[in-house]
Write a structure and sequence with these properties.
about 450 residues, alpha/beta, Aspartate Aminotransferase, domain 1, Aspartate Aminotransferase, domain 2, 3 domains, seven-stranded mixed beta sheet, five-stranded mixed beta sheet, 20 helices, 16 strands
């Protein structure tokens, strides 16, 4: 009986030759459709083997293939973020600005990646980025690699390999993807010297640990958690004063990497790169795709002699950013240079939208959807991306109570574009804080098409 079931699965050649797929093959190419068709047919075989399911009808198989192709081809990769987490790692963190996208299009072709226009000779890949960050922060030099985890590693590898680095136990953080500061320090070849306790570290703890083999004091921004109550750690400014006293460099892993004061948007102020420069940090590293609102990148800024050493490290080529990243980062940074952050950088545009406007949009959406048990509600959004972890941002959206809430949420995720929401207590929540108003119609259409 099982053998007969397997025999009922159509051959991929039969699937590809059916007229229902001819337009799709013309649009996306036969190679892609064949790849997805084999995936769908393999999934059917697995389900028969594990769950004893029967073979779906030929029409359902073709429908499934069409859906899967649409999910991976061009527009099928786009998502609408109704989760309320603005820097959502699963959805690519910061959405790029229009200007960054224009720069990205230039980067798609031949462009000046590492060639000097005047001499025709080889140049630094991040020349223009370095100029902008110098202007914004006062840093002597800047280099760019592929992400901040790599930036932290290469900073320690080049500048501290074989020597001691003093760090507070309160800074031995772990972030997503099993990234742990002790492991990074060990991989870099430096010797980690822990001081203080989990909740309390004093400046004297650092001072007592300094030896002739101390290469640096390391400050790590507690970006994705907070310890409250009986807890304290010396500030970065205090640590820099101690470093100057003993002529020991201070390195800072800022994580999210703010270039502007977040209090302008009603959030808790985070350390900025400019703060690091003013305090006297020798090198700080930070992300490009979080509070900067650009592409994934690891940016290192600081003293020119140290940045030049990092550029020449053997890992620099392994970790270097591609031409697309460099162009998109340039376009993003120009908005900071031109003082147009609120108008041009999407995450700051989202933060700038008033609650009144969000509430009005939620009411308008509810007036156009044909479902019961829907109501406008106030919500808590979060910046995400390891920044201001305990600071909620007041927002508005709407919720729909539903008997099959998980089925509803799964349906929305599988639309084109995918719609990601929150679910709890038998309801699905649509937070509009991270949603562009031009996406409201797509949300309405997807909800109304749910059966």
């Amino acid at each position: 009986m099982e053998e007969n079931t397997y025999r009922n699965i159509p051959a991929v050649t039969k699937v590809l030759s059916c007229t229902e797929l001819s337009d799709l093959i013309q649009k996306t190419g036969i190679g892609l459709v064949k790849l997805i068709a084999n995936r769908v047919l393999d999934q059917i075989r697995s389900e028969i083997k594990l769950k004893k399911k029967t073979v779906p009808s030929f029409e359902k198989i073709i429908k499934k293939i069409k859906e899967e192709v649409s999910h991976v081809f061009l527009g099928g990769k786009r998502a609408i973020n109704c989760t309320g987490i603005l820097l959502h790692t699963g959805l690519g963190r910061a959405p790029l600005s229009d200007l960054a996208t224009e720069f990205l299009e230039v980067g798609a072709g031949y462009n000046l990646v590492q060639a000097d226009r005047s001499s025709g000779e080889r140049s630094k890949r991040e020349d223009f980025i370095e100029e902008i960050i110098k202007e914004l922060t006062g840093a002597e030099a800047t280099t760019v690699i592929n992400n901040n985890a790599a930036a932290t590693f290469i900073m320690l590898k080049e500048l501290c390999d074989g020597r001691e680095v003093i760090i507070s136990r309160g800074h031995l953080v772990e972030i997503g993807g099993c990234y742990r500061m002790p492991d990074i320090m060990a991989a870099s070849g430096c010797k980690m010297v822990e001081v203080g306790t989990t909740n309390k570290t004093h400046l004297l703890d650092y001072e007592k640990a300094i030896t002739s083999n101390t290469s640096a004091l390391l400050f790590v921004h507690q970006s994705n958690f907070r310890i409250s109550g009986f807890a304290s750690i010396p500030s970065l400014e205090e640590l820099c004063e101690l470093g100057k006293k003993h002529k020991i460099p201070v390195f800072a892993d800022l994580g999210s990497g703010a270039l502007v004061d977040l209090s302008k948007w009603g959030l808790e102020r985070e350390l900025t790169v400019e703060d690091c420069v003013k305090f006297g940090v020798s090198v700080c590293c930070y992300s490009g795709d979080k509070l900067i609102g650009g592409p994934q990148a690891g940016i290192l800024s600081g003293e020119e002699t140290l940045i030049n050493r990092i550029r020449k490290n053997e890992f620099s080529r392994m970790f270097r950013s591609c031409k697309l990243t460099l162009r998109a980062l340039e376009g993003t940074l120009l908005s900071f240079l031109n003082n147009k952050v609120s108008e041009e950088i999407p995450i700051y545009k989202f933060l700038s939208v008033s609650n009144k406007e969000l509430k009005n949009r939620a009411n308008k959406i509810l007036s156009e959807i044909s479902v019961d048990n829907a109501e406008v509600v106030m919500m808590d959004s979060y910046l995400g991306g390891g920044s201001t972890p305990d600071r909620a941002i007041q927002s508005y959206g709407f919720r729909i109570k539903h008997k099959q809430v998980e089925k509803f949420a799964n349906y929305l995720r599988n639309q084109t574009p995918s719609i990601f929401t929150r679910t709890h207590d038998g309801a699905i929540y649509f937070d509009l804080r991270g949603v562009s108003d031009i996406e409201d119609t797509e949300i309405i259409n997807s909800i109304n098409n749910f059966q």
